[in-house]
Predict the structure.
Amino acid sequence: MPLTPSTKILGLTYDIRPMFKDHMQDITRQCTSRVNALRSEVSFNTADRVHFVRTSSRSSKYQLRSGLSRITVGTCSAGRTVPHNITDMHNPELKKRWMMAIKRQNFTPSKYSMVCKDHFTAEDYMPGGRRSEGRLRRLKKTAVPSQFSWTKKPSVAAVARKERALKRMCDSARSVDAEEVTGGASKMMKSEKQKCGSACSDEIPDVGAEEVIESEPAQVFSVPVSDSTDAVVPDAVKVTVHTYKKVYRVDDFKHNAESLHFHTGLENYEKFTFVLSTLGPAAYSLKYFYGPITSLQVPEQFLLVMMKLRQNKPNFELGELFGVSERDVYNIFVTWVRFMSLQWGEINLWPKKDIVQFYAPHDFGNKFPGTRVILDATEIPVRKPELPLAQQATFSNYKNRNTLKAVVGCTPGGMISYVSPAYGGAASDRSIIERSNIPQLCDKGDSIMADKGFEVQDLFAPYDVMVNIPTMFKKTNRLSANSVLKDRKIASKRVHVERVIGLGKTFKILTDPLNNAEAQLGSDIIFICYMLCNFRKCIVPSHA
């Protein structure tokens, strides 16, 4: 008969709940006393975690197991591990090896300290016993735990980080001159030969700098040093220095004007040195953005920047050509672009009125004598930004892509006299003129020439400056004969600024999309490219 909380036995009613309650209290009291006794036996740190594992489903006894495996490897699980007792070993030397492998500080194992199976390899177990066969797997007498977090193989990401670090170290070593390396290596090996004597020379008949060319233009110089007992050097030493062979040097272009013009846009070597001299002595004492540059001389750095502007070669290719790392190329380019923009920005490009009239073509001076500047807008492509607001600000409806926009002005003679800062492609021509100081630069009675998009007559009217633009269709779809003749005259002269802008676009950095880093220097790059047009041969003839 099953027992219920209230049961009749022999006609009497008994309440058995107090008996179960007393029994459970006795069991709990025994477990608590047992746990306290085990705690006093085990020595552990406050950072350790202790796990209580039930030894049997039908028993109220608990076994205390130290959180040793949990501390060493965070992936251990008490429900799936097979613990191995540390104190069961009778070999003190093996126990010492276990303790050294575990690397627990201030830890004294007791008979209840365990190490789970995740810290052992399959070779550490004796063949045979498997849990599925009713037998537990047993460790070999010489088994030592070896699978810990500090012994596991590094991840793919960790290996990649290490390779990038080694690459940066190699890049920094590339700046060392190859000749000095081979010379120093040969001297070192000669001294080692003398120290080793005849025995060393017999074992190694030809010890010296060994040149191994992996790929052009890269070169690797390896210097092996003997590790024989007769040698003075106790350990094997191998010095490997990675250097790049310099393909381009400034001196190579002294008598090759065609190649210099192709790479830099400057016609000859004399003009190249002249442009460099306009930057002043400050070019020889620059403070670079990302550390000093000692591997290239100042003329070679200027040549690198000019090749980047003219050909827009990748930084990696320029590093191969000039024997420097890709990081050094970026450091040189950013520093020089900012320096050239600030240095040339101090020059007043706005010429006086009499000088403009003196160098203006004859026909231009007869038809539009008061013209001070010819204005037009230009756009250069950029890569699509990530931020939606930046995408909206740089998207040009005219080009149907993300661009930077600037206003360029030239004199009737073809000299660049004004370059505005770069704005997003969504900016209008009028908004750029509103933010410029062109009305203040013009004198009273001057005139400017622009395209139809420059509706800026009201901006120049307070300064008594006339704006010559083609006639706009308003309420009529037909122009008068006089308007057509006037528009043809304006178009024939306004084309000069478009030709000058096309000359600036021969620098390919203005035609290829700028990346995010180069887009931040957009104003400087545009100004430098059009400033360099002033050093080139004028494309506007004197009779235009």
